[in-house]
Design goal:
By secondary structure, the chain is α/β, with parallel strands linked by helices. It is 34% helix and 32% strand. The protein is built from eleven helices and 16 strands. The protein has a six-stranded mixed beta sheet. A six-stranded parallel beta sheet has the order 7-16-13-10-8-9, sandwiched between helices. The chain is globular, with a radius of gyration of 23 Å.
């Protein structure tokens, strides 16, 4: 290997480490996962977390980042040892973080890395995170909002994230009150774990249940509870076992009228509307009233002031994230081909909205 190639490899690996930090800071989970080889691993023994493969890394990042109030990571150059199409190295990390439940601290850590040259360029084959120093003393600072602070006249405001940050307690209460006024049952729960337990209360054992294609359900474990736990007559596994070419009518009937549909939404408004988006539209009939009962689990970041903002959230926030996931998992883009807006529940008590105080899903 000539000297120029060695320099180029070192520059690209250093850029890869910087890209990792940028993706983490920007909460760009699909981009972060793409920096690993398809079977790459991210291991954080102190948390503990062990994620193998791009999909686990993306989903794991979603779970971790949904807990942040703020997070700052700085990567400092370390070692790089090249060996043909592989390399090893270390990167030195400083982090400040505060979670939504109040945990906070400062730490210094090391990433022990293995790198692999691929057709996409250099990628992480493995990152192992080792904390060398941890201080959990209360942090004196906070994440400034645009237009506040002593330097507001000259500083560039941090980019607003209106569709990713959890709504305040007051906004959750307004949304819940408006939903109840429209005939929905609405509850405010602390987190996904509480929702997971509540779904078991609301959906009786043995019921016919359709789950939506929802990141919220997947990340919370509710999807697994329903579709693999054996407690329910789960519709989705039955549908997946049917040949789509010869069984299209049977699939359509199964998904249109289950006893229960359990799903999430793209947005809920403080005026009491639910907005669902779909590429194929197959899951919308059950949510629109085809199911005898519906339960929707909604992260706090999905609460928006009104319907026009909800539609913007679908296009500007949820669609790009779902599109990246679909490209990664299915090799094709997503689209908003069908929209369902529920402004009220004409059968009071048949639709239940579980609003969470934490952010989860898109």
């Amino acid at each position: 290997m000539n000297d120029f190639q060695t320099i180029a490899d070192r520059v690209e690996i250093e850029a890869l480490r910087g890209e990792f930090t940028d993706a983490a800071m920007m909460r760009d989970r699909p981009r972060l996962a793409s920096l690993f080889t398809p079977d790459g691993a991210l291991r954080m023994p102190n948390i503990p977390v062990e994620l193998v493969g791009r999909e686990e890394i993306r989903a794991g990042g979603e779970r971790l980042q949904s807990q942040w109030d703020f997070f700052v990571q700085t990567t400092h150059p370390g070692t790089i040892v090249l060996d043909g199409d592989t390399a090893t190295g270390r990167a030195y990390i400083q982090e400040l973080a505060r979670t939504l439940d109040g945990r906070q601290g400062l730490n210094y850590a090391v990433y022990h890395d293995r790198y692999q040259r691929t057709v996409e360029g250099w990628r992480f084959a493995e990152r192992v995170y080792e904390v060398r120093y941890l201080d959990t003393s209360p942090l004196a600072g906070t994440a400034p909002q645009a237009g506040t602070g002593p330097a507001e006249a000259t500083a560039t405001p941090a980019p607003a994230r209106p569709f990713a940050d959890p709504a305040s307690a007051e906004r959750l209460e307004r949304a819940a009150a408006a939903l109840r006024a429209g005939g929905f049952a609405a509850e405010i729960l602390d987190d996904a774990a509480a929702a997971r337990a509540r779904v078991k209360d609301l959906v009786p054992e043995g019921a016919s249940v359709l789950t939506g294609a929802s990141e919220t359900l997947r990340l919370s474990g509710i999807d697994d509870d329903i579709n693999t736990g054996g407690r329910y007559d789960a519709v989705r596994p039955r549908v997946q076992a049917i040949d789509r070419a010869t069984g299209a009518d049977e699939i359509r009937r199964l998904v249109a009228g289950p006893e229960f549909v359990v799903n999430s939404v793209a947005a809920v408004t403080e005026t009491g509307s639910l907005v669902l988006a779909s590429g194929s539209g197959s899951q919308l009939p059950a949510n629109a009233g085809g199911a005898a009962h519906a339960v929707w689990i909604v992260g706090a970041q999905k609460v928006v002031p009104d319907l026009s903002t909800a539609l913007r959230r679908v296009e500007e926030h949820a669609l790009p994230l779902e599109n990246a996931r679909a490209q990664e998992v299915y090799g094709r883009p997503s689209a908003v081909n069908r929209l369902l807006i529920l402004n009220a529940e004409p059968r009071p008590g048949c639709g239940t909205v579980l609003l969470l105080r934490e952010a989860i899903g898109y």
